[in-house]
Every structure is written in structure tokens, then in C-alpha cells.
Please model this.
Amino acid sequence: MIIWKLSSFPRRAVLLAALVAVIRISSQAQTWPPAPVTPVPNAPEPQGDVKVRELPLNLLKDQGAIWSSPARVRDKDLGYLVPLGLAVTLAMTTDHQVMSEKVSLDKNFNDENTKASNVLVAPFVAAPLVAYGVGHLAHSEHARETGILSGEALVDSLVVEQGMKLIFMRERPIVDGAKGKFFQTSVGVDGSFPSNHSMLAWSSAAVLADEYPSRFNSLMFYGLATGVSVTRVLGQQHFPSDVLVGSAFGWMIGHYVFKKHHRYDSEVYR
Model:
């Protein structure tokens, strides 16, 4: 049995991490706008700012690209898709054993982990408003873009996750001895596959890590996202394969949104 003691530590840890993230974004925002510089011949022109009004159309384009992405898989994509597929297959074959024999069935333990996952995911859900607010107050286009794109990634992930749950209709671990059956109409919209918390956390973390790339930031954002995924399993809310798929898809969606729509370029504005 896996017995991990969780009390108030996750709440304090996530609050500290969120505070650190806000401070780091704010400190970088204070340099905006930079001092005017002498134009350099043939220098690239700024691409223009990311606008909130662009969100509805961008979301529609994102969804079209996401759902049609299997048709555009190329040989170069197999380098990560094959290992991911193997990992998901392995996870699914061991889901029942892990949830029924390895993860504690103690209700208090499960409830503590479920609460911890809700606390850990909160900064990722709040990130769009926090970053956009910091950008507005500090006149930082970088922070504003971070807020808009992280919000876009969250909405994209939510739509994809809900669509997949309606398609696969998987029972949660607490149902029928953690057999994890798929295509059970009784599940309705509360399916287990994939994990909502994991997709939201990893999509937001991917945008934040891409916008503010550094080893420290990556460890902080992805570390918190990993905590969300792990506590969903320990809380008996999801199977390991649920959080694996949710984490992977969330990361891919967040990275796609950043790569497709970001415009802020520190080199251009230096």
C-alpha cells in the first residue's frame, strides 16, 4: 500500500510557488517598455501584440487543428508518439492492479489527496488572470500575452478533455472495483479518461514555461503540474493512464498554442 502523508504542506507549497511565479513575472514586467534604441538597418519589425479579441477565432482554429492532427502525423512525430503509446498501453494494463492493490483505499487519505490536487491546480487556472493583470498594471506586453495564451490553452484543453470523456465514457476507480471499463453510458459527462485536472495543469504549465524559459521556471511549473497528476491518482479520482494521457495532451496543447500564437519577442524589443 502506498501511504503518503499529506496535510497542510501542499497548500503552503503551492502558495509559495505561486507567489514566486508572480514575483518573477512582475520583476520581468518592470522592464517594459524598454528604452528607445537606435534603429538597426534591416531589423525585424515587431509583429504586433496578442489581442483578447482574437481569442474566439484562435480557439476555433485550435480545435480544428487539434482534432484533425492525427491526419497530419509524419515520420518525425513517431519519435515521441510511439513511446507515449507504449507508456499508455502499459499503464492501462496495470491500472486495475495499481488502483486496487497499490494505492491506499483509506477514505481520509484519498480525500486529502483530492483536496491537494484542487489546491495545486488553482495557480494554473488563475494564471491567465494573474499574468494579464500584472501585464496591464506594469504595461508589459509579455505578461499580457502570457495571460491570454495560457487562458487560450486552458479553454482548448477543457474542450478536448470533455469531448474525449464523452467519447470514451470510462468509469472512475471508485466504481466496480476499479475495473476501469470504457464506453459505459452510465458514466455520462463524469468520465475518468482523461484527467481534467492534469490537462488543465499541464497546458497552462507549458505556456508559462515557454513564455519564461529557464531551468528554475520549468522545474517549478512542471513540478507543480506533476503534483496535480500524482494526487489525482492517490485520491482514487483517476487511473494512472488517465493522468498520463491528460498530462501529455495538455502539454502538447499548451506548447501548440504558444508556438502558433505568441508574438512577443525579447530580441525585437531589446
In short: The radius of gyration is 20 Å.
